[in-house]
């Protein structure tokens, strides 16, 4: 009896955590722990008239049917489909090649209709689309009589602009009518001669790849009403030079401006929180960016290959960045990392060959493999955490490295590849007072030519480049070697201008407070310093 009870208890617990699939009344479902069910494909395939219920009972529990999976009814011989008013999304190709399907009434609850849902339903002549749909996928109705009988030109449904139907190469000027709220997935993708676009102030949603591969677009005014710009919406718009994003936008989706090779300026909204994966990858002419203080996350490859980007000052609101975020940004010379950053992921700054100095804040507990691989101009690294893990080849091929300063009293575990191709004999290793013995006894750390003990409670980075020298002294910030009439500005770490002076040549001195980070901006470079007691 005890074994049976334990088995039943284990099955109940397992059921509460796992997604599982079962057939109920001839329809396959995928059930989730949150009480939802998704209609899925089955073998043999569906046929005849299908009625999907709003709820399904399994093991005594009611599940709400909310979605239809990709390819669920693809190439089946169903003759009709009845949806409950609980369905919110229908997946890619869910009903494609259903050649016996003649009419469809989509439920009013539907929000997302993915791409190719009814493609090549050769008998489908009647389709009812709900008014509150928010995302309409590319080619959703291609190959249906319903679509084929529509005239060429701009194809609308209610407040949705579905696409330009016809020869896309002939479209040059685009004036979208007032009242349009959504531009559908891929609506103008590949309109190679499109150069002039007027968007209405009613627009709220530019869906995935809506204007991708439109090289003739050089600028576009996005109205403030827009709250969402979907994946890849303007990717490969190689003529686009500037973009001002609307203030209601919270997220820049994945791939949105990827390979916009002539984009040189982007203005982010004041409340932006997230920049997605590959969002600005290969924007080779993007030279300067200013992030708002609301930012929380920058995705993988977000700025990878932005080869003339020279400065990345990340606000303290950012806690996470993705792998390869700034990889191959070969002109990046100024890098300010946020004080709340948890880790530096793989390849995050690899190939940033123009970086000279990097200060890694004490919030960073992990530096992942290849993080700074190939930063051939990197001369000094300051790691301020007293407990940091450093992974495989994190600083490999940093061939100019002369100073590695680390606040950890215990030597982090490394191997012979961590500093691969770094001349450690000519590089100074700075460690906390009392820690040199442990580093000198370590198999790999002992290879540094000079291991010096320093008091990390008072150390402040010093920057020297050409004749310009920036450092902290007592309760002052000192800048030496400025040019006559050169403007020097002092900012808080959150980007607020504190004071500015024009140099008369020689030395400038600014009052400052202890235990405070400052950004010092000259004409050519931005530095980060802190005064500490």
Task: State the gist of this model.
With 533 residues, the protein is mostly beta strands. 5% of the residues lie in helices and 33% in strands.
Describe this protein's structure.
The protein has 533 residues and is mainly beta. The chain folds into four domains: 2-148, Leucine-rich repeat, LRR (right-handed beta-alpha superhelix) (Alpha-Beta Horseshoe), CATH 3.80.10; 155-273, Leucine-rich repeat, LRR (right-handed beta-alpha superhelix) (Alpha-Beta Horseshoe); 287-459, Leucine-rich repeat, LRR (right-handed beta-alpha superhelix) (Alpha-Beta Horseshoe), CATH 3.80.10.10; 463-531, Immunoglobulins (Immunoglobulin-like, Sandwich), CATH 2.60.40. The chain is 5% helix and 33% strand. The protein contains three helices and 41 strands. Strands 1, 2, 3, 5, 6, 8, 10 and 12 form an eight-stranded mixed β-sheet that branches. Strands 36, 37, 38, 39, 40 and 41 form a six-stranded antiparallel β-sheet that branches. Strands 13-14-16-18-19 form a five-stranded mixed β-sheet, with no helix packed on it. The longest helix has 16 residues, at 2-17. The chain starts with a helix and ends with a strand. The model is unreliable at 1-18 (pLDDT under 50).
- Number of structural units classed as domains: 4
Count of separate DSSP helical elements: 3
Q: Gyration radius, to the nearest Å?
A: 29 Å
Distance between the termini: 68 Å
Instruction: Classify the helix fraction into a percent range.
Output: under 10%
CATH topology of the largest domain: Leucine-rich repeat, LRR (right-handed beta-alpha superhelix)
- Regarding CATH, which class of the largest domain? Alpha Beta
Please state the overall shape, judged from the principal axes of the Cα atoms: elongated
Q: Sketch the major β-sheet.
A: 8 strands, mixed
Q: Count of DSSP E strands?
A: 41
- CATH architectural category of the largest domain: Alpha-Beta Horseshoe
In the CATH hierarchy, what is the superfamily of the largest domain?
A: Ribonuclease Inhibitor
The amount of beta strand, in percent, is 25-35%
Counting helices, strands and paired strands, the structural category is mainly beta
């Amino acid at each position: 009896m005890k074994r049976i009870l334990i088995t039943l208890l284990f099955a109940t617990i397992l059921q509460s955590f796992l997604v599982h699939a079962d057939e109920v009344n001839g329809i396959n479902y995928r059930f989730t722990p949150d009480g939802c069910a998704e209609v899925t494909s089955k073998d043999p395939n569906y046929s005849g008239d299908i009625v999907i219920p709003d709820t399904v009972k399994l093991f005594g529990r009611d599940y709400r049917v909310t979605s239809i999976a990709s390819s669920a009814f693809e190439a089946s011989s169903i003759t009709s489909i009845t949806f409950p008013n609980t369905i919110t999304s229908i997946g890619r190709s869910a009903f494609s090649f259903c050649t016996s399907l003649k009419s469809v009434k989509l439920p009013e609850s539907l929000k997302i209709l993915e791409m190719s849902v009814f493609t090549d339903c050769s008998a489908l002549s009647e389709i009812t689309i709900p008014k509150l749909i928010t995302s309409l996928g590319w080619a959703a109705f291609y190959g249906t009589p319903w679509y084929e009988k529509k005239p060429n030109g701009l194809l609308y449904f209610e407040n949705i602009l579905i696409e330009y139907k016809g020869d896309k190469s002939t479209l040059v000027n685009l004036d979208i009518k007032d009242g349009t709220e959504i531009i559908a997935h891929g609506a103008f993708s590949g309109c190679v001669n499109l150069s002039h676009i007027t968007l209405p102030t009613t627009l709220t949603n530019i869906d995935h790849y809506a204007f991708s591969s439109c090289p003739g677009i050089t600028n576009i005014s996005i109205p403030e009403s827009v709250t969402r710009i979907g994946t890849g919406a303007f990717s490969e718009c190689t003529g686009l030079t500037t973009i001002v994003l609307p203030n209601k936008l919270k997220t820049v989706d994945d791939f949105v401006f990827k390979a916009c090779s002539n984009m040189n300026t982007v203005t982010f909204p004041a409340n932006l929180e997230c920049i997605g994966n590959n969002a600005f990858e290969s924007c080779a002419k993007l030279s300067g960016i200013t992030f708002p203080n609301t930012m929380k996350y920058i995705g993988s490859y977000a700025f990878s290959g932005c080869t003339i980007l020279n400065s990345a000052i990340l606000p303290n609101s950012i806690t996470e960045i993705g792998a390869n975020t700034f990889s191959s940004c070969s002109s990046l010379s100024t890098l300010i990392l946020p004080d709340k950053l948890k880790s530096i992921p793989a390849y995050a700054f690899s190939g940033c060959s123009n970086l000279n100095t990097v200060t890694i804040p004490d919030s960073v507990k992990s530096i992942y493999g290849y993080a700074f691989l190939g930063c051939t101009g990197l001369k000094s690294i300051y790691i301020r955490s007293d407990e940091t893990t450093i992974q495989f080849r994190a600083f490999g091929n940093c061939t100019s490295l002369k100073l590695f300063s680390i606040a950890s009293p215990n030597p982090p575990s490394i191997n012979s590849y961590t500093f691969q191709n770094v001349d450690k004999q000519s590089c100074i290793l700075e460690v906390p007072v009392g820690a040199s013995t442990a580093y000198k006894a370590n198999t790999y750390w002992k290879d540094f030519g000079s291991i010096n003990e320093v008091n990390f409670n008072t150390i402040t980075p010093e920057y020297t480049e050409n004749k310009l020298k920036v450092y902290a002294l007592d309760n002052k910030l000192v800048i030496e070697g400025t040019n006559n009439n050169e403007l020097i500005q002092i900012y808080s770490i959150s980007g607020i201008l504190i004071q500015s002076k024009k140099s008369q040549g020689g030395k400038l001195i600014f009052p400052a407070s202890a235990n405070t980070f400052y950004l010092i901006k000259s004409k050519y470079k931005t530095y980060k310093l802190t005064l500490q007691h």
